[in-house]
Glycerol-3-phosphate dehydrogenase [NAD(P)+]
Amino acid sequence: MIADPLVIIGAGAWGTALANAAAQAGRTVTLVARDPEHAATIEATRENLRFLPGALLHAGITVTADLGAAAVARALLLVVPAQALREVARSLAPRLAPGTPVVICAKGIERTSGRFMSDIVAEELPAAVPLVLSGPSFAEDVVRGLPTAVVLACGQEPVARSLAVALASPTFRIYHGTDVRGVEIGGAAKNVLAIACGIVMGCGLGESARAAMVARGFAELTRFARALGARPETLMGLSGLGDLVLTCGSAKSRNFAFGEALGRGVPLAEAAGGKLAEGAFTAAALVAMAGRHGVEMPISEAVAAVVAGEMSVDEAIGALLNRPIRAEHEII
Ligand SMILES: NC(=O)c1ccc[n+]([C@@H]2O[C@H](COP(=O)([O-])OP(=O)(O)OC[C@H]3O[C@@H](n4cnc5c(N)ncnc54)[C@H](O)[C@@H]3O)[C@@H](O)[C@H]2O)c1
Ligand SMILES: O=P(O)(O)OC[C@H](O)CO
């Protein structure tokens, strides 16, 4: 596939890291920032001091704030927060050539509509070919060239395969697949579960409790995914188990760090520390969708109640610990 020029919308931490990875893979990259002043500063200093300090931008990247750059894109990456994805997709609609592959890199569910990211792209950019990129990957690791593996899913298998080849490098390995729903569920739900793990650690409940949270979180994630028609093996892969292990195990995760702060008693309004904790926005939408499909997600429900201010951390932990004893694996 010809993926040049590759246009990346969103010059935050992940957009910047992906721009560097793609440029290193040989792509011609345009990185589009929201704010013209920020774009000019990155272009001039070759560093994104605001979102990813300490990393030099590859020489093959042009930075702009002009969304019009999307008009010539042979492939486009959407790397803005999940709650902003619709607004951004809508503004791209008149600019994008029909059939352009659009790779969704945000991990979340839209809270106002309860829609997945791929549904939003289908609604706002109906002529585009939607793909989802997800998996365990910290921007800081990717930009340092540390080995990372992610998955790229598209309903059209040849598009996923050829774009994976175009964007991958020896240290940024991109597997491909066709289970778009499974891959986006993995990315969205793990953020909610990482908040739960952060709360556990912030409260000092210990490593055993964290491991239990990961395993039971994975159980509810796979129950949910199965009910929504995703393939269970997808969730056993990079977007699902892989990302759960990363984000539930590292204070570098903004979702985990948010939960940890809540567990330490930091007030809700201050716990994210000004950083993007996607799970806080996704939790209620995830739980509502699970309810509509008759799926129990007690950990996600507890997180949703805590981030909505409806339950204290202690009440949420008490509710989880006092659930009835049951068989580990449900037959559904
Ligand atoms: N940072 C990571 O390691 C990482 C890894 C994988 C996936 N992701 C996902 O990528 C998405 C973006 O995360 P990030 O780390 O880049 O966040 P970030 O906070 O570092 O950057 C967000 C970017 O989006 C822009 N933005 C915010 N609201 C906008 C709006 N309404 N319109 C246009 N642009 C807007 C901001 O200006 C900024 O450039 C999230 O869904 C996140 O879960 C992040
Ligand atoms: O910092 P987080 O919690 O948004 O996690 C970043 C990535 O999603 C990890 O795969």
Summary: The domain at 187-321 is CATH 1.10.1040.10 (N-(1-d-carboxylethyl)-l-norvaline Dehydrogenase; domain 2). The beta strands are 6-9, 29-32, 47-48, 52-56, 61-64, 75-78, 101-104, 129-134, 148-154, 172-177. The pocket of nicotinamide-adenine-dinucleotide (ligand 1) is lined by residues 10-15, 34, 51, 79-82, 84, 87-88, 105-108, 137-139, 276, 278 (CB under 6 Å).
